[in-house]
Amino acid sequence: MEIGGPTNIQHVAHVTFDRFNGFLGLPSEFEPDVPKKAPSASATVFGVSTESMQLSYDSRGNCVPVILLLLQSRLYDQGGLQVEGIFRITGENSEEEYVREQLNKGLIPDGIDVHCLAGLIKAWFRELPRGVLDPLPAGQVMQCESDDEFVKVVRLLPQTEASLLNWAINLMADVVQFEHVNKMNSRNLALVFAPNMSKMADPLTALMYAVQVMKLLKSLTEKILGERGATSSHVDKRCSNEAEEGEKEEEEEEEEKDGVYIIEREAPEIIRVVVDEHKA
């Protein structure tokens, strides 16, 4: 029995998928079954490369996945920036699982707890196939000691990762500007974001690197706050160019002491954060 070729063929439409606008050219009868603004071309919006996701621009020109912009918008609209412990306190696991399912369908349900929204933003970064800061040479990052060196090293990031980092830093700066009510300063935010920005197999190496990443995030956040004209309480002025030579030497000694202090005091906090993130 021979199978004949197709007959009576009619070209109805040519459909393409655009990362910025979703499906283009889709016949109207199929539109109810397909989200008009699909957040991803894959089955999930978590744990996938940004190349398979719908992207858009934020107000600062960063090209980032739409899912991040949706979560950010909802977080801000619900007053999340003013909530004490935002990004530090974890949400309910059951609610997060439900919201994840809805996000994969291109929907954000109403009434989501702000801590759940914040946790999903951190989870999105944590579950990337490659950490945002992973393209950077780890050795070069570890050698950074000043704000200028941190700024210089992040310029080595590819455009995609650079946009994601800039978006995250500005998000952190937005939170810090409400520090008086949410109790989250630049150090606290850097502490909870650091474990989500890179991936290293060796636990000890990952811990040491996370401490340095925390310094990097804190430095960049305070730089943004300084550019926004934030108060001096948000900006580290120990490296002021107007300081006396003797004061500079004392500051260098203090920075060395601070380096040891950070390893001894903050490293355990990094460990706790990493453990909490994995539990979540």
TrEMBL record:
Domain of life (superkingdom): Eukaryota
Record carries keyword Flavoprotein: no
Comp. bias intervals (Acidic residues): 242-257
UniProt keywords, alphabetically: GTPase activation
Pfam families reported in the protein's UniProt record: PBD (PF00786), RhoGAP (PF00620)
Residue ranges constituting the CRIB domain according to the UniProt record: 3-16
GO biological process, one term: signal transduction
Sample GO molecular function, one term: GTPase activator activity
PANTHER family recorded: MKIAA1688 PROTEIN, RHO GTPASE-ACTIVATING PROTEIN 5
Protein's name in the database: Rho-GAP domain-containing protein
